[in-house]
Amino acid sequence: GNSVTQMEGPVTLSEEAFLTINCTYTATGYPSLFWYVQYPGEGLQLLLKATKADDKGSNKGFEATYRKETTSFHLEKGSVQVSDSAVYFCALSDKGSSNTGKLIFGQGTTLQVKP
Amino acid sequence: DSGVTQTPKHLITATGQRVTLRCSPRSGDLSVYWYQQSLDQGLQFLIQYYNGEERAKGNILERFSAQQFPDLHSELNLSSLELGDSALYFCASSISGDTDTQYFGPGTRLTVL
């Protein structure tokens, strides 16, 4: 079945460092891909999305490109801030045969940014 | 604020009991999804409703059930609770039932003692 694999955390960076969180997926068809962020004690917030191959999603300095040839959707940010400390989830929409948009999530990657 | 509301925020109960979690979707959204977040299983899809009808089912236990009402709010019923049911339960909504962006509520934290 469809699945998402994220790099294991925690990832600890200094402020202004470059961030990459790897995400690869296995899917039939052409799923949409998402990054969600969960701040401590809160729900999930959509960070960015891409709906087809070579699309680049971007928001708040974060970017991810839908790479069908490598089945990847890696999250990047050029300069992280302490406020970016959170858990990041990669997800795909599993449309399948039942016309559903249910999300399949990776295991989450905890990012800690130190001043 | 995503526009999705969930009540209660916290719920503490005992094994064997039954609880109901409530979700109100964003205005205009027809589809509601329920997810469970636990330390060992991560984020798992439970069930989806679209305009009052069940659309898809995930790894939802038989002790759990859900429904979506005519005003589009949804309830997740958990019965014969076990310690392992302790988790964060999220509701999400989207405009339609397929690959639209889902917006998540703040979650209900269930603790079973």
Average residue pLDDT of chain A? 92
Helix proportion of chain A: under 10%
Helix content of chain B: under 10%
Number of strands of chain B: 11
Largest sheet of chain A: 6 strands, mixed
Low-confidence stretches of chain A: none
Structural class of chain A: mainly beta
Oligomer class: heterodimer
Mean pLDDT of chain B: 94
SSE string of chain A: EEEEEEEEEEEE
Q: Tell me the number of helical segments of chain B per DSSP (H or I, 4 or more residues long).
A: 0
The coarse silhouette of chain A is globular
Shape of chain B: globular
Q: How many beta-strand runs of chain A?
A: 12
Radius of gyration of chain B, whole Å: 13 Å
Strand proportion of chain A, as a percent range, falls in over 45%
Beta-strand portion of chain B reads: over 45%
C-alpha end-to-end distance of chain A: 41 Å
Q: Treating each run of at least 4 consecutive H or I residues as one helix, how many helices of chain A?
A: 0
Largest sheet of chain B: 7 strands, mixed
Largest interface: A-B, 26 and 27 residues
Characteristic key phrases:
heterodimer; A: 115 residues; mainly beta; six-stranded mixed sheet; four-stranded antiparallel sheet; globular; B: 113 residues; seven-stranded mixed sheet
Detailed description of the structure:
The complex is a heterodimer of chains A (115) and B (113). With 115 residues, chain A is mainly beta. Chain A contains no helices and 12 strands. Chain A has strands spanning 3-6, 11-14, 19-21, 23-26, 33-38, 44-50, 56-59, 62-65, 75-77, 86-93, 103-105, 109-114. In chain A, the strands form 3 sheets. In chain A, strands 2, 5, 6, 10, 11 and 12 form a 6-stranded mixed β-sheet that branches. A 4-stranded antiparallel β-sheet of chain A has the order 3-9-8-7, with no helix packed on it. Chain A has a two-stranded antiparallel ribbon with strand order 1-4. The N and C termini of chain A lie far apart (41 Å). The model of chain A has no long low-confidence stretch (mean pLDDT 92). By secondary structure, chain B is mainly β. Chain B is built from no helices and 11 strands. In chain B, strands 2, 4, 5, 6, 9, 10 and 11 form a 7-stranded mixed β-sheet that branches. The N and C termini of chain B lie far apart (31 Å). The mean pLDDT of chain B is 94. The A-B interface holds A 31-32, 34, 36, 42-46, 49, 51, 89, 93, 95-96, 98-108 and B 2, 31, 33, 35, 42-45, 48, 55-56, 58, 90, 92, 94, 96-107.
